[in-house]
C-alpha cells in the first residue's frame, strides 16, 4: 500500500472497530451480559461465549438476536476470523487489506442483525473524513460485472464454443433460458451476476482459465486460496448488488466494503493489463458518463425484476444437471426403511414357502386347533401431550426453515402441517417450485395458514415469476390464480400491474413483435385476475 492508501485504510479500519465496540455493548446487554467498556474483537468473542453459557445454548443466543442458527454461525465465524487477523490493535498501527475487509464484513453483518432485532440501537455509520459516494458504488457494480464478462470472453472468444461449453456445464435448459434474455450473439448478457461469477470461480474453470490473473497476495489472501477469497468477495457483491437493483439506498458500510472488494478484484487484473498479459482493462470500465451508467442500471434492474432477483449463492463448483443432487436426510432415511422392509418381506416369504414344503412332506392329518379371537394390531399412538414440534423432533427433523421448505418442495403436507402447527412462519417465494409443479396438497395447506405468511411485499416477485413462467409456456392454473387473489389484490399492487400491462401493450403495438404481444397478453391476464 502507498502512504495515502494506508491512511485511508487505517481510518476505515478504526471507524469499523469503533462501530464494533459500540455494537458489542448493545448486543451483550441484550444477551444479559452488560459491560461498561468494550474492547477488541478477541474480548467480544469471549464475552459472546460467556453470554452463551449464561443463556444455556447458542440457539437461545440466536433467538434473542432474531437470527437463525446458520446466521449466528456466520456471525461468530466472521468475529473469530477478525480476531485472528487482529488480536489487538494500537491506534496508528499498520492495517492490512485482509484485516480491513474482515472488519468491514463484520460491521455489515452487525448492520443486518440490528435490522432484525428492533431492541438493538447501535450505530453502524462509519465516521470517515471522505464518505463513500453512491455514484462511485454504482460505477463499481457496473465495472465488476463487465470485468467478469471480459475475463470469460477472453477465455472463450468464440460465441458458439462458449454456448456449447455452457450447455455442458449448466445444461441445455439453463442455456435456453439465458438466450431468451440475452442480446443477439451475446449469451453473457442473459446471465445473472452470480452465474457469471460461478463460471469464473468454479474449481476446474478457475484453474484452467483464470488462476494466473489472481496471485496469492494482497486482499486475495483473505482466505486459504485466492479462488476462495474471490468467491467470498463476489457473493458479498451479489448481495450488495441485489440491494441496489431493488432500488434501496446502499449504506455507507456497504459502499465502503464494495470499494475494497472492487480494488481487491481489479487491482491484480489492472497490473496484468499494464504488463500486456491480459486484454481486460478494468480502468476502462470505470470511465463512463451518467447516461451510460443510467442506461446500464435500467437494463440491469429490468433483468433483475424479470428473473425475480439474483437469489442463489455462488457455489464452490457448478451444480451440473448431469449429476444427481445428493439425497436429503429424509430421502436417505426413506431409502433405508424401504430396503429393510423389503428384506423383512423376503424373509417372510421364504419362511412361508419352507413351512408349506414341510407340511407337504409330513402328510400328517391336520388337527383342528381351538379358535382364538382375532386381536387387531395396536398402533402406537403419540402421547396426548405431544406437541407438533416434539413430533418433528422424534422424527429427527430439525426445527429450521430449510427443512420446512424441503417439505413444501416435496409436497409433504404432513411434515409441513407440523411446522405450521408449531408456529413456523412462511414466505410466498417458497412456493415457486410447488406452484410450477401444481402441488395442491401443500399449497392448499399453506393458504389455510395464511396469517403466518410474513413476507413483507411478496407480489412484485410473485408476479414477475409468474410472468416468466407463462412466457415459457406454463399454464395459468387455478392455484396460481388463487395465490394471486390471496396476496396481490391491494390497490397499490393493482395500480402497478395496470401500469405494467399498459406499458407492455404500448410496446407491443409499437414493435408488432410476437414476443412483445405475448408478453402484453400475459401482463393483461395477470391484471384481469387481481383487479
What's the structural blueprint in terms of helices and strands?
Elements: H1 3-30, H2 41-55, H3 58-65, H4 69-85, H5 97-116, H6 134-155, H7 159-170, H8 172-181, H9 193-201, H10 203-210, H11 226-245, H12 252-274, H13 282-286, H14 290-306, H15 329-362, H16 388-394, H17 401-409, H18 413-421, H19 432-437, H20 440-448, H21 459-471, H22 478-487, H23 491-511, H24 514-530
Structural summary, described in words:
- The chain has 531 residues and is mostly helical.
- Helices cover 66% and strands 0% of the residues.
- The protein has 24 helices and no strands.
- The protein has helices at 3-30, 41-55, 58-65, 69-85, 97-116, 134-155, 159-170, 172-181, 193-201, 203-210, 226-245, 252-274, 282-286, 290-306, 329-362, 388-394, 401-409, 413-421, 432-437, 440-448, 459-471, 478-487, 491-511, 514-530.
- Helix 6 runs parallel beside helix 12 and helix 7 crosses helix 8 (172-181).
- The model is unreliable at 364-385 (pLDDT under 50).
If helices are DSSP runs of H or I spanning 4 or more residues, what is the number of helices?
24
Taking pLDDT < 50 over at least 5 consecutive residues as the criterion, the unreliable ranges are 364-385
Tell me the strand percentage band: under 5%
Shape: globular
Q: What average pLDDT do the residues reach?
A: 85
Helicity level: 55-70%
Please provide the count of β strands: 0
Alpha carbon gyration radius: 29 Å
The sequence of SSEs as H and E is HHHHHHHHHHHHHHHHHHHHHHHH
Terminal-residue CA separation: 60 Å
Task: Give a quick account of the main beta sheet: strands, pairing sense, barrel closure.
Answer: none
User: Strand pairing plus helix content: what structural class?
Assistant: mainly alpha
